[in-house]
Amino acid sequence: METTHRPAPADPGRTAAWSDRLRAAGRRVTRQRLAVLEAVDAHPHSTAEDVAAAVRTALPTITVQSVYVVLSDLTALGMLRKFEPPASPALYETRTDDNHHHAYCVRCGAVTDIDCAVGHAPCLTPVEHHGMHLLSADVVYHGVCADCLAADGARPAAASAG
């Protein structure tokens, strides 16, 4: 799935917050890091290749390898979240401040954020935590998106109790 991304105008407040977080983590604030953050923020659920294409509109000489290094570093810092849908390349997003999940279309690969269940969700409470302090749960909903259903002339079926 190839897409062309144009960078959105930088939000000075958002850029300042990212710069503060980078400095607090002991990292230099570089054009490359900020360009990657801006590209991912403008186009959530982008692959590394899509991020590289978007960053190249602002920094034409950046290599894909450099983008991968920045993505890895920003993910390790918790400034990006890496999501790996089944049988697809990893996707990146800047939404890291909550425990949300994803719905993945098994036909076209579209990904949508799904807010975490509110209240008690027994399937998200493990029987045993094995001594770990659990921070989040990753849930991937597999389905067929509305666009694919419409293309087939089908209607979405009600979810069955499981």
TrEMBL record:
Residues reported to bind Zn(2+): 105, 108, 145, 148
Cofactors: Zn(2+)
GO cellular component, one term: cytoplasm
Note accompanying the cofactor annotation: Binds 1 zinc ion per subunit.
Record localization: Cytoplasm
GO biological process, one term: negative regulation of DNA-templated transcription
Domain of life: Bacteria
Pfam families listed in its UniProt record: FUR (PF01475)
Gene3D superfamilies found in the cross-reference section: 3.30.1490.190, Winged helix-like DNA-binding domain superfamily/Winged helix DNA-binding domain
Signal peptide from the UniProt entry: none
Listed GO MF terms: DNA-binding transcription factor activity; transcription cis-regulatory region binding; zinc ion binding
Name of this chain's protein: Fur family transcriptional regulator
Organism for this UniProt entry: Kocuria flava
